[in-house]
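Reply to thread "Modeling small-molecule complexes from scratch"

Following up on the discussion above, here's a worked example others can learn from. I took a protein sequence and the SMILES for S-adenosylmethionine and predicted the complex. Inputs first:
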Amino acid sequence: MLFDLPAVAERARQRFQSAGLTGRAHAHGGDFLQDDLPYGADIASLVRVIHDHNDGGALRILRAVRRALPVGGVLLLAEPMAAMRGAETVGDAYFGFYLLAMGRGRPRTAQRLMELVREAGFGDIRRIATDMPLQTALLTARAVRKPD
Ligand SMILES: C[S@@+](CC[C@H](N)C(=O)[O-])C[C@H]1O[C@@H](n2cnc3c(N)ncnc32)[C@H](O)[C@@H]1O
């Protein structure tokens, strides 16, 4: 299941169709800041999504994901994170300016993301090593309780 804004979901639907994937891939259009996400996945991925949003929006998205997962379901969160050891200034300057230009969102440390993920109702939060952490760092977490 893919969830994105309606116009983006429509493009994805067309791509699924031309790739012969309509039997197993479904695109859902909506606004993850307001709408429920489709229920029934056992893993949900947020790839380069949370850093585009301020804390209020980030928490709303994470809670929506939590509501869409059963207890024990897995969240996979991948994005560039702030304060990567050895690349602090490069990462913070590049992604700081990128998000400043966008007008919202912020680069967050893995620690801060873990706090938000926990607040949204996840536990067993782990940081997974990646080959290019400056570009993509990775957290996984399990849904442990209903979101507040
Ligand atoms: C930086 S892109 C990442 C997309 C993809 N995961 C990737 O890595 O290429 C952020 C995505 O969030 C979607 N998005 C932004 N605001 C949204 C909203 N309110 N509801 C649903 N999707 C939204 C955008 O349309 C875009 O596809």
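What I'd highlight from this example: Residues 4-5, 8, 31-33, 47-49, 52 surround S-adenosylmethionine (CB under 6 Å). The mean pLDDT is 93. Questions welcome below.
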